[in-house]
Amino acid sequence: MNNLKECRHPTTNSRQRQIERWAIVCYSADMVPILIATNNAGKLREFEQLLASLPISLESPHQLGLKLDGEETGTSYLENARAKALAGQQASGLLTLADDSGLEVEALDGEPGIYSARQGGPGLDDIARYELLLQRLCTVPWPQRTAHFRCVVVAATPTGEIFHAEGSCTGKIAFHPSGAHGFGYDPIFYLPEYHQSMSELSPTLKNSISHRARAVQAIVPILTRIIAATVQPDGAA
Q: I want to staple 201 with a disulfide (CB 3.0 to 4.6 A). Which of 128, 147, 206, 234 is the partner?
């Protein structure tokens, strides 16, 4: 297994820049399809924006008529993301990206963590979940409300290779929700350096600093090389 280790702020050397420029020029008329193994509309929008510089066309399971197993039974973000990426790749035959992410609150010993999307049970929506979290923190003072968004992105290739990258973002849990953008716990995740919640940030700013943005930024060089190997330039053998 090949893994791209965690890189919150990846560096780009001259060779990588050359590969990226070559890929964009050569493949502008020949888009590589990639399955994003989620039907979460918010995640799909973010992946579309985060991968906009690559010569790819994004597909969702819904668009392809696929019903993937949505159960997350792993004990880590990596296990869950890997299982989703493999399931999507095997069902579609396409290069597949999947992620797993969560909110870790220090005052709750890292909860809800990998169970963030399932906190409170399957009957709750995003609003009910973050309201439940606010209730759990109702007596916790501001200095102790530090939290981290974490994300692991996994790429599964048709040739059986697996790559992953990680990203994180630190903030605090606000006392009240605010903002109209984003999804999930974004309305209560406050970023002191911006004096706004994640939901108040513009999509452009969010997609440069969020946990998912940093994970995707770290895996883009790997995707670029996969694309370069998938589509040969004119005249190549």
A: 206
